Amino acid sequence: MTVTGSTTSGTTKPLGTADKRAATGSLIGLALGDALGFPTEFDDVPRILAKCGPWREMRLPRPAYITDDTQMTLAVGRALRTAMDRGPLDEARFAPPLRAEFTAWYHSPENNRAPGTTCLDACRRLDDPRLPWQRAGVVGSKGCGANMRVAPVGLVPGLSAGQRAGAAQLQAALTHAHPTALAAADLTAHAVHLLARGAEPMGLVGLLRSYAYDNRSRYHDRWLGDLWTRAGDPTPQAYIARGWDECQEALRRLAEALPTADPECDPCLTTGDGWIAEEALTTALQCFLLFPGEPLTVLRRAACTRGDSDSIAALAGAFAGAHLGGAAWPGRWADDVEHRSDLMTLGALWDA
């Protein structure tokens, strides 16, 4: 089956052959990466090797507990499902259920998996119904919480390029209002979308750099409203351009690193530790692009890093699963991951 992918202008172009279970593969891959990276987060590579043995032989913990990365990914996925049950996706339909999902996560007794401070602070403000959502996000934060959870936006079918970009940026802005957080979330969703629709991995970085260039001055006012006024920029275009410029620089570093990247070296050494959104994207992409046909190796390389291992591995797993589909993950891994049923339900809905 030949498929097409949307460009920023709304036209389409051939991408390749898509796996019919790309959504399932991506969501399960994200959760598996999250679970594999959970025990290694905050450790450097020598400590990880001492604890886990050779990185290429890392085993999935049993039970395979996930972190806030997967919890919030499910929140975004459920909000998308609710919004699209009510009609075409737009800010008015998406923001209320997303806000409700985030505040439910904030109050959940299971919100004890090392959640990020920015997400907690923003969700506390979202819990105040008198406050517009545009005032909840931390304007100075571009942490990876903005894009660790955005994969569902790239997987849900039937969206235009503008809807996908607007939804990706909005879900970031509810907690992380720095323009780089918005741009990185948009790029992450776009990468998942391209891979799910058959894009070749080796051309992916070039496609993302072109996308960043094309969108540099595009502010999605119908989705974001007056969010830009909080940052002190003279215009909305100036606000969003700062974010795209930082992401473009991160993608440039990735493009320069890939040709000579040593798979045995920590990817964080070349593309960053992943605590911030643009580095989480590029370091996860590096892990995926080093081993595009070896999904478990992708997860293991991403989990054995000195940086934000669970978020890097979650994104790397989302990319690998979108590319290879549901069959990428051995049953003995996929069956053990926490919230498997919820992930499979959303995946099956979007793969149908």
Radius of gyration: 18 Å
Q: What are the segments in which pLDDT stays under 50 over at least 5 consecutive residues? A: 1-14
Order of helices and strands: EEHHHHHHHHHHHHHHHHH
Q: Helix tally? A: 17
* Class by alpha and beta content: mainly alpha
Write the topology of this structure.
Blueprint: E1 2-6, E2 12-17, H1 22-37, H2 45-52, H3 68-85, H4 91-107, H5 117-126, H6 151-155, H7 161-173, H8 179-196, H9 204-214, H10 221-224, H11 236-257, H12 268-271, H13 277-290, H14 295-303, H15 309-324, H16 331-334, H17 340-351
Antiparallel strand pairs: 1-2
Helix pairs in contact: 1-14, 1-15, 1-17, 3-4, 4-5, 4-7, 7-8, 8-9, 8-11, 8-15, 9-11, 11-13, 13-14, 13-15, 14-15
Structure description:
The chain has 352 residues and is mainly α. It has a single domain, classed as ADP-ribosylation/Crystallin J1 (ADP-ribosylglycohydrolase fold). It contains 17 helices and 2 strands. The protein has a two-stranded antiparallel ribbon. The two termini are 15 Å apart. Residues 1-14 have low confidence and may be disordered.
